[in-house]
Amino acid sequence: MTRGSRALPVLRAVAGACGVALMGVGMWAAWRGDDPQDPWPVVRWLAGAVLVHDGIVAPLTLLAGLVVVRLRARRAVRGGLLVAASVTAVAYPVLFRPGVPQNPSVLPLDYVRNWLFVLALTAAATAVIALTGARARAWARRPRTREGNDGRKTPRGS
Amino acid sequence: MKLPLRPPGIRSLPFSFPGRPSFSGRLHDARTATAVGRLLGAAVAVCFVTGLVSHVLQHPPALLANSLPSRPSWGYRFSQGLHVASGIAAVPLLLVKLWAVYPRLFAGPPVRSVRHALERLSVAVLVASALFELFSGLFNTAQWYPWPFSFVPVHFAVGWLLIGSLLLHVAVKLPDIATHWRRRSPGTLSLPAGDAPDRRSLLVATGAAAGAVTLTTVGQSLTPLKSLDLLAPRHPDHGELGLPVNRTAARAGVTAGSVRGWRLYVGGPRPYEITLDDLRAMPQREVVLPIACVEGWSRSARWSGVRVRDLMDRAGAPVGALIRVTSLEGHGAYRVMVMPHTYARDPLTLLALRLNGEELPPDHGYPARIIAPNRPGVLQTKWVSRMEAL
Q1: pLDDT tens-digit profile of B107-157?
Q2: Which residues touch A100 (CB under 8 Å, ≥6 apart)?
Q3: A87 and chain B: CB distance < 8 Å anywhere?
Q4: Nearest-CA neighbor of A80 among B246, B154, B206, B271?
Q5: Would you call A97 and B105 a contact, using CB atoms and an 8 Å cutoff?
Q6: Which InterPro entries does the UniProt entry name for this protein (chain B) (predicted)?
Q7: A66: chain B residues, CB-CB within 8 Å
Q8: 3-state secondary structure of B160
Q9: pLDDT tens digits along A108-148
C-alpha cells in the first residue's frame, strides 16, 4: 500500500469536514449574521430552483436529445443547441426584466435584436460544421480508386 | 449509405412510466461528470474567492476596517469583473454537469442508509445553491429582484453553502473523480470506447457555449471587447460623458435646489467649510481610475479635483484616521461611507470636480464626488457634503 492511498481517506475526511463547516458558516451568515433574513423565503427559492431545473429544464433537454440523437449531424446540432440554450439562459434577465430601468445606461442595448443575431450566428456556425463534417465523413468513406488499389500482390512471408 | 454511429438504446421516451424512469442515453457517466465538473468547480472557486474579496472591501471586518489595501488601483475592477464573468461562464458548465448526472436523481433505492441519505441531502444543497447563486447573481446584474428577501446577505450566505457543499461533494466523490480524471484512467477505460468521440464533441460544445456567453457579455468590463458586448446589462459607451450611471441625482433626491450655495464641511481638529470656487482654486490633480460596480461593469475615466489627503491635512486630521464621507442624498444604504486611512492617504484618492475634461454632471455627483483606487463603485460617494476624521 502506498503512502498516497493511505493518506487519501484522511484527506477526504478533512475535506468533507471543512465542507460541512463552510456550509455551517453559510447558515450562520443567513440567519445570525449582520443582516439576518427570514429563512423560509430563502428555502422556498432554493427548492424552487431545483424544482424548475429537475422538473422542467432537464426533462425538456432530454426530450430535445431524443430528436437530436436521430439526426445525421447530431453532434453539430447538439453543440448548436447547447450554445443557443446557454446564451438564452444568460440573456434571460436582460430580455425579460419587467419595468423601466432606473436610467438610460442600464440595459441600454436592443437585447432582442442582439439575442436573435447571436442565435442566427450560432445556427450558421452549426450548419457550416455539420456540412464540413458530412463532407469529411464522405471523404473518409470514398471508394478506393484504381490508382489507390493498384492490384499489387501483398508480399508474402514478410 | 451508412449513417454515422447512433447511440443504441434510445427508441422511445428516454425514461419509462410508470415507476422509476430508466435512462438509456449516452454520456450520463462519471467521465463526463468529471471532465465538466472540474471546470465548473474551478469557476465556482474563482467566483467564491472574488465574491469574498468584494464582500471584504464593502463590509470590512473590524480587523481590516482601517487597513484595506488601496492598491492595485485596478484590483476591484479585475476581481469583480472576474466574479461576474466566471459566474456567467459557469452557467453552461452547470447545465451540462446536471444533465450528465440527472439519471442519478432516480437511482434506486432512494435511500440505502443514514450516510446515503445525508449524501443525497448534501447533493440537493449543492444543486440548489449552485442554481441559486448563478441565477440570482445574473438577475442582480440586470437589477431585477423577483425574490422577497434582500439580495446581498442571501447571495453571500448561499455562497458559503455552495462552496461548502462542493467541497463535501468532492470529498465524497474523490475515488470516482480520481479513476475518471484522465482519458486513460482505469474508470474511463471501463466505459464504452464508442462513447469517447461523442464525449469529446460534447466537451467541445460545452467549451463553445462557455466561450459564447463570455464573449457576448465580458465587454461590459473588459473594454477592448466592448464591440462584442451584445447581451450584458451595461455597455461602456452608454452613459453621460462615456461613463455608465447607477444612481441618478433624481433618484437620490439631489436637485438643483439642494446644491445651491453648496459648501463642503471638512471635520477634524480644525474644522472648516469650503465653497466650490475655493476648491477649484486649490491644487488640482488628475488621475485615471475606473468606476467598478458590484454588478460587474466597469469603465475607466479621467478625473480631476483635490486630493482627499490635502483637504484632511488642512483640517489637522490625524494620518491614521478613518474618514466619514456623507452625501447630500436624503436616503439610501450608501449615503454615509467610511473610508479607511489607506484610501484617504493614497495620492490617487480625489474629491473629484471634473470628469473626462468636463464639470461633473449631476448624475455623476455634481458638485463633488469621491474617486479612490481599488474600491467598489457604491463606495465612490457622489454629491459629497461632509468629510470628517473619526
Answers
A1: 888 899 999 999 999 999 999 999 999 999 999 999 999 999 999 999 999
A2: none
A3: yes
A4: B206
A5: no
A6: Di-haem_cyt_TM, Mopterin_OxRdtase_euk, OxRdtase_Mopterin-bd_dom, OxRdtase_Mopterin-bd_sf
A7: 10, 13-14
A8: helix
A9: 999 999 999 999 999 999 999 999 988 888 888 877 655 44
With CA atoms as reference, the chain B residue closest to A91 would be B231
pLDDT of residue B354 exceeding 80: yes
Strand B323-327, strand B298-307: pairing: unpaired
Distance CA B73, CA B57 (A): 13
In this complex, is the C-beta atom of A119 within 8 Å of any C-beta atom belonging to chain B?
A: no
All three cell numbers of A126, joined, read: 452549426
- Bridge partners of B307, per DSSP, are B350
**pLDDT above 90: percentage of residues in chain A:** 71
Chain B contacts of A12, Cβ < 8 Å? 171-172, 174
User: Residue B108 phi/psi, 5° resolution?
Assistant: -120, 160
Interface membership of A129 toward B (CB under 8 Å): no
Quick check: B282 contacting A, CB < 8 Å? no
Q: Are A30 and A36 in contact (CB under 8 A)?
A: yes
Q: How far is B285 from chain A (nearest CA, A)?
A: 28
Which of A106, A101, A97 lies closest to B240, judged by CA?
A106
Partners of residue B238 in chain A, C-beta under 8 Å: 104-105, 108-109
pLDDT of residue B241: 94
Cα separation, A88 vs B92, in Å, equals 10
